Amino acid sequence: MIAPVLPTYARAPVAFERGEGPYLFSTDGRKFLDFTAGIAVNALGHAHPHLVAALTDQAGKLWHTSNLFEVPGQRRLAERLVAATFADTVFFCNSGAEALECSIKMARKYHAARGEPERYRLITFEGAFHGRTLATIAAGGQKKYLEGFGPLVDGFDQVAFGDLAAVKKMIGPQTAGVLIEPIQGEGGVRAVPRETMRALRSLCDEHGLLLVLDEVQSGMARTGKLFAHEWSGITPDIMAIAKALGGGFPVGACLATERAATGMTAGVHGSTFGGNPLAMAVANAVLDIVFEPAFVARVEQIGNYLKQQLAMVVDKNRDAIEDVRGQGLLLGLKCKVANTELVTALRERGMLVVGAGDNVVRLVPPLTITEDHVREAIGILNDACASLTHRPTKDAAK
């Protein structure tokens, strides 16, 4: 008999009833150091007082009106994002997948509005993850997400990760742009080299293409810059963000230049819930914290400290882990043991992490963690790694 909740998730056997800062507390009384943060969502930790106050205050006033009317919180959030980024305009939605859908439609509409509707194809990269809609699974191109869902949504040409020669070869008269994550999260915390990002920007300029970035996971200070593309010194034409933007409340956004937004006029795109007063109140509260003068620099500092400490974990546990990768507080451990085993061993010891492709374990803690939290995590990691390597193998047991 099928469960009341559709069984599309392989859930861990633990449920939580409250959180405080970087900790979660389960219904059976256990305490966990949360280095999953809702998969890079709870950027300010759990029950942050400023976010709680903003949500509570707005909840007593107005929840939803729809986009048939002006929403003052949208204007304020958009103005703040425009002032802080490359963008001239912002569309609000509810998730990263929706932000990517808007980005894909915008890239196509840009060329159609210029009299070139045949230019609708986006070049994407192996290992990408852009969401679970029919368009975004086609953009990601991963078989495990595509199987059983019928014909692929047309319009995506995938090349090997970071392969500039393949990108150049793929560009044709139907190409509209390039869609890429500056750091692949789900794909194994693989960072695109900065010189590659700069080369992609140049290729797009040379061929009249749009550079579309997926910063759903890498954005909002996660890497030690407000957005990961800033490390390369380039700007995109369109960018999808979500996750940390709402600090735990569902908020997504598509940011764009005025030029890229050509054609996105009244009626061509919309969202019933996107940008409602509750969501905007919380997202503006998130920006209050993230836009504090020292916040992003502090994320870079604590991220460097965590990465240094993880390098020592690797050195100490070469039978379990072979490498640390990533930037800021979007980090990954490339495992020699099965990454699922390390995730389980850590959870059994009171630490939550999340798996990724390429046999990687992701560490995406709240951006508010301290050095004390890092040291706590390192102790748990060393213990978990030792438990997985200092044991008889299945072959030896025979």
Q: Kindly give the count of domains.
A: 2
Q: What is the gyration radius calculated from CA atoms?
A: 21 Å
Give the beta-strand count.
17
Helix segment tally = 13
Shape: globular
Walk across the major sheet and give the strand order. 4-12-11-10-7-5-6
Major β-sheet, in short?
Answer: 7 strands, mixed
Portion in strands: 15-25%
- State the separation between the terminal residues, measured CA to CA: 38 Å
What level of helicity do the residues show?
25-40%
* CATH topology term of the largest domain: Aspartate Aminotransferase, domain 2
The level 1 CATH classification of the largest domain is Alpha Beta
Structural class: alpha/beta
pLDDT averaged residue by residue: 96
State the low-pLDDT regions, or none. Answer: 393-398
CATH-derived architecture of the largest domain: 3-Layer(aba) Sandwich
N-to-C series of helices and strands = EEEHHHEHEHHEHEEEHEEEHHEEHEEEHH
List the helices and strands and how they pair.
Blueprint: E1 16-20, E2 23-26, E3 31-34, H1 37-40, H2 49-59, H3 72-84, E4 89-93, H4 96-113, E5 121-125, H5 134-140, H6 143-146, E6 156-159, H7 164-170, E7 175-180, E8 183-184, E9 190-191, H8 194-207, E10 210-214, E11 238-241, E12 252-256, H9 277-290, H10 295-316, E13 321-327, E14 330-335, H11 339-348, E15 351-352, E16 354-356, E17 360-363, H12 371-389, H13 394-397
Parallel strand pairs: 3-15, 5-6, 5-7, 7-10, 10-11
Antiparallel strand pairs: 1-2, 2-3, 4-12, 8-9, 11-12, 13-14, 14-17, 16-17
Helix pairs in contact: 2-9, 3-9, 10-12, 11-12
Structural descriptors:
4-stranded mixed β-sheet, Aspartate Aminotransferase, domain 2, disordered C terminus, 398 residues, 37% helix, 17 strands, Aspartate Aminotransferase, domain 1, 13 helices, 7-stranded mixed β-sheet
